[in-house]
Design goal:
Layout lengths: L1 E6 L10 E3 L2 H9 L11 E5 L23 H8 L25 E3 L5 E3 L14 E2 L6 E2 L11 E2 L9 E2 L2 H15 L3 E7 L2 E6 L7 E6 L7 E7 L1 E2 L15 H8 L12 H11 L6 H16 L2 H18 L4 E6 L5 E7 L1 H6 L4 E10 L7 E8 L5 E9 L4 H15 L6 E4 L3 H10 L4 E4 L1 H12 L5 H9 L3 H14 L1 H11 L1 H4 L15 H9 L8 H7 L1
Parallel strand pairs: 17-20, 20-21
Antiparallel strand pairs: 1-2, 1-3, 4-5, 6-7, 8-14, 9-13, 10-11, 11-12, 12-13, 15-16, 16-19, 17-18, 18-19
Helix pairs in contact: 4-6, 5-6, 9-10, 12-13, 13-14
Length: about 550
């Protein structure tokens, strides 16, 4: 029968007892207690003598890369000594060397004895223990602060299951970051994962493997959750704080919002919630990875776009969707108009503002918008499109799709800026509708070309004048002060494009494309989303 002494450290988290194998372990244990007068509970058990797995010969580790580990610990974690089913936590007894750096001296007979370090204070008599086979007291060696033991603070245990190896890695990375320690991989393949603390003298270990070769589930076979490495080795800039782990942890903060925390916010999150110090670049990559987890990647967006449009048409009767591809079946354009918007347009003012805004995602592009206005002056989004750029072909394709849902009559007014591509596309597609220029864009052109901001009051009065007599008076005032401006407005732009009284159709009081700009500003944060995520926001 063997006499086994075990001691459960007073830690916040539960852990397996430490086994005291000899007098040196007892001495080291007593020295680790800061309060020399306290009582230390010991549990005494008797077990039949047997050969432990780690004491078997010929079990040298084959994958120990640095050769700094002792044989029993390497073999113990590299070889399964349990059955195919995971062992019960309470039935597994972990043997941990508590301290390994105590100073030792050899006597004349070759036997080793523990001696106090030079210059240490006298040992308290209460902390003296009796050596084996002798009544002489053994002085307790002085143990440095770096030789203390502590738990990793996790809820892991032998026999715990994980659905995949990825889930297990994510759990261990989270534990490492919160505990400010690092681990490295000793062995890894599709069915096995063996890790250890980065300090070669530390006792922290974990070995996990598949339940059965055909399964994806992993189970912890062996686990030592107590560290015996130095507290000075704790590092907040550790290898487990990868951008993937950071992104997975911060991803919930981007659910249901358009913006979420920026890179600096991710740095703050990693420091306060995970205890990790990360660079701005790693925070940026972590934020990007979180966006991918929540909103999908651009490639996935292109892949699911046809299915997404199919479901929109099925759940929203009357919805019109179009996808245009090139000769190699690659995405080129898309068009979307919800059925409810199409049906409601008959009750709106027949004035449609069109404009485009650039997208900021990986594949860029331009978002085209067509919106109307109701009797209360509220924006009424009508149709959306995504094209490669604002060119004549793209605008012609978009306006052709728009014409199919709103028609082409002489009562229809189209308001846009004076981009040549839009002007040509409207004249080609809409034969009966009237095209008007955005008065704000015309004003910006005047200020930039002629440097005459002081006549903007007269210009806006001419824009909003109902009677031609009033309009003529304002134009005379502009002509007297800046003849070139008057000539530009009359011959280059044309009175019928920007003035209310000369417009051939009904544009009401809508003289600018502000209703389109309002929608663009609403999507300022969503413009860097993948296409499907952008359409979800719309």
């Amino acid at each position: 029968m063997d006499l086994v002494l075990s001691y459960t450290p007073p830690l916040n988290k539960k852990c397996s007892p430490l086994v005291l194998k000899d007098d040196e372990d007892v001495a080291a244990l007593l020295a680790s207690r800061s309060d020399s007068t306290c009582k230390i509970p010991l549990g005494v058990t008797f077990e039949p003598t047997e050969v432990c797995p780690y004491e078997k010969s010929g079990q040298e580790s084959s994958d120990d890369t640095d050769g700094s580990h002792d044989g029993f610990r390497d073999n113990y974690f590299d070889v399964d000594y349990c059955d195919s089913e995971p062992t019960d936590v309470g039935s597994s007894r972990q043997t941990l060397p508590i301290f390994r750096n105590a100073e030792r001296t050899s006597n004349d007979n070759g036997a080793s004895a523990t001696q106090p370090a030079e210059g240490n204070p006298p040992v308290d008599p209460l902390l003296q223990v009796t050596g084996a086979g002798s009544d002489e007291p053994v002085n307790v060696p002085t143990i440095e602060a770096s030789d203390s033991t502590f738990s990793d603070g996790s809820d892991l245990h032998e026999g715990k299951y994980f659905n995949t190896k990825k889930d297990l890695k994510r759990k261990l990375s989270d534990i490492a970051m919160k505990g400010n320690f690092e681990f490295r991989t000793r062995k890894s393949n599709r069915s096995l994962w063996v890790i250890e603390c980065i300090d070669p003298n530390c006792s922290w270990r974990l070995r996990a493997s598949k339940i059965v070769p055909e399964s994806t589930k992993f189970v912890i076979r062996k686990y030592v959750g107590v560290h015996s490495c130095s507290l000075l080795n704790r590092n907040a800039n550790h290898r487990q704080a990868t951008y993937v782990v950071i992104g997975e942890q911060v991803a919930p903060q981007y659910v249901g919002v358009e913006k979420g925390p920026g890179p600096k916010g991710v740095q703050t999150f990693a420091r306060t919630e995970l205890g990790a110090q990360i660079s701005y670049y790693k925070a940026w990559r972590g934020r990007k990875h979180a966006h991918t987890l929540i909103r999908g990647s651009p490639e996935q967006s292109f892949h699911v776009l046809p299915s997404y449009f199919h479901m929109l048409e099925k759940l929203n009767p009357g919805t019109v969707t179009r996808i245009e591809v090139d000769g190699e079946s690659r995405f080129k354009y898309l068009f979307l108009a919800f059925g409810v918007a199409i049906r409601g347009f008959r009750y709106m003012r027949k004035v449609v503002g069109i404009d485009g805004t650039f997208l900021k995602g990986q594949y860029r592009g331009v978002l085209l918008v067509a919106t109307a206005q109701d009797g209360n002056g509220q924006c009424y989004p009508l149709a959306w499109g995504i094209v490669d750029s604002e060119n004549e072909d793209a605008w012609s394709w978009f306006l052709t799709q728009l014409k199919e849902i709103i028609g082409d009559t002489d009562e229809l007014a189209l308001i846009s800026d004076r981009a040549p591509s839009i002007k040509k596309a409207i004249s080609t597609v809409f034969e009966k509708a009237h095209h008007g220029a955005c008065a704000w864009h015309v004003a910006q052109n005047i200020k930039n070309k002629f440097k005459c901001a002081d006549i903007m009051g007269s210009y806006w009065s001419a824009v909003n004048a109902y009677r031609c007599e009033d309009f003529t008076g304002y134009m005379i005032e502009i002509s007297n002060r800046y003849p070139r401006v008057a000539e530009y407005l009359e011959n280059k732009v044309g009175f019928e494009k920007w003035s209310r009284c000369h417009y051939p159709g009904l544009r009401y009081n809508i003289t600018t494309t502000n209703m389109v700009e309002s929608l663009n500003s609403m999507l300022v944060n969503a413009r860097d989303f993948p296409y499907v995520a952008l359409l979800d926001v719309i």
